[in-house]
Amino acid sequence: MFYSGEQLKKVFLKAKKERFGIIASNVVFDAQIRGILQGYEAQKSDGLLQMSSGAVKYAAGTTKNMETGAKVISALIKILAAQYNNSGVGLHIDHATPNYFDFVVYCIENDLVSSVMIDASKEDFAENIRISSEVVKVAHKYGVLVEGEIGYIKGTEDEIVSDDELYTQPEEALEYVKKTNVDLFAASVGTNHGVTKGAKVKLRLDLIKEIDELLIKNNLERGIVLHGASGLTAKQQTDAIKNGVVKINKDTHYQMDFAREVQAYWEKEKDSIKKPDNVSEDDYTPDKKRFDPRKWVIKSELAIQQSVEELVQITGSANNSILL
Ligand SMILES: [Zn+2]
Question: How high is the mean pLDDT of the chain?
Fold first, then answer.
């Protein structure tokens, strides 16, 4: 089923209390959405789907109208998720920078999303607090959750590019949460956006733990979000969860699944759309069965489902839906 912000809040509270992680999956189009929802349902796991500013522009077509794109993605998820009773998902806006403030408000007011991320981490600290608080004010009126960010996460994700990494300071995290009242926050703890592999990532578990303990000590316990988690090893992910991480973002992982399956199919079937030299144009009848998009897109879709099933088993959210 599709979760409101209030239901999603219960998902994160349960996850934090029982120390498992919710996989937040970036989506753009229907095949990915189907694969991901099927994966959550098969494993009786709750989850989150998220759309970046680039994703909503793409979903609208060449107009790049963000409101249209968000309505398309939200409707697709709501309709498809309504088929399932053993798992629920919310929809989240990923990395909305301050210039997308009006878009975020539009999505909240039109009941398109269950949570939003305001990423004002490139602003100075006081300004980050001011903008994040503004978003929280609007979102909480509608029961929508808010994720904020302090420190920068290195790498490229969609429209967000950062060449530097700036680790989140625990004292700043405390002040930020206290002043903004965000529900979740993204900490910069060593992961990179993109495809950096686990072995090369120096994941600062000590920092995650320090931030989590400081917030708990001040009665401000929150879920910590791990961005750029596609390349992490299973152990790195479970260690992060044990230390306070509750939301793990995945984007690149599914993009690779999709591309790999398409490539494998067309490697094998490339002659199906090529006229043999000894046949004339008039006599050439290509075999439609071999290039019908449903035939090969489904392979990517099922590979994504498989990935979700493996991921939710690693993070422990399998068989832990609040609906069970
Ligand atoms: Zn991110």
Answer: 93
Residue 130 structure tokens: 């001011």
35 C-alpha vs ligand 1 centroid, how far in Å?
A: 21
Residues 54 and 93: their CA atoms lie apart, in Å, by 11
- State how far the Cα of 152 lies from the Cα of 220, in Å rounded to an integer: 22
Q: In whole angstroms, give the CA distance from residue 177 to residue 206.
A: 19
* Distance of CA 54 from the midpoint of ligand 1 (Å): 13
Looking at 46, 94, 212, 257, which residue is catalytic?
94
How far is residue 230's CA from residue 314's CA, in Å, rounded to a whole number? Answer: 13
Cβ pair 187, 153 in contact under 8 A: no
Alpha-carbon radius of gyration of the chain = 21
pLDDT at position 202 is 80
Q: Tokens 């970046």 correspond to what residue?
A: 52
Q: How far is the CA of 324 from the centre of ligand 1 (A)?
A: 30
Calpha distance 129→307 (Å, rounded): 36
- Structural domain of 43: 5-268+285-315
d(CA 115, ligand 1 centre) in Å: 15
Give the distance (Å) from ligand 1 centre to CA of residue 131.
18
Give, for 90, the enclosing helix (H) or strand (E).
strand 89-96
Number of other CB atoms surrounding residue 138 within 10 Å: 16
The tens digit of pLDDT for each residue in 239-256 reads 999 999 999 999 999 999
248 domain residue, yes or no: yes
Q: Distance (Å, rounded) from C-alpha 128 to C-alpha 62?
A: 32
In a domain, 279, yes or no: no
Task: Give me the mean pLDDT over the 293-317 stretch.
Answer: 97
CATH label of the domain that carries residue 102 = 3.20.20.70
Indicate if 257 belongs to the active site.
Answer: no
Residue 273 located in a structural domain: no
pTM passes above 0.90: yes
* Cα 320 from Cα 44, distance rounded (Å): 7
| Number of Cβ within a 10 Å radius of residue 276 | 8
Residue 22 CA to ligand 1 center (angstroms) comes to: 15
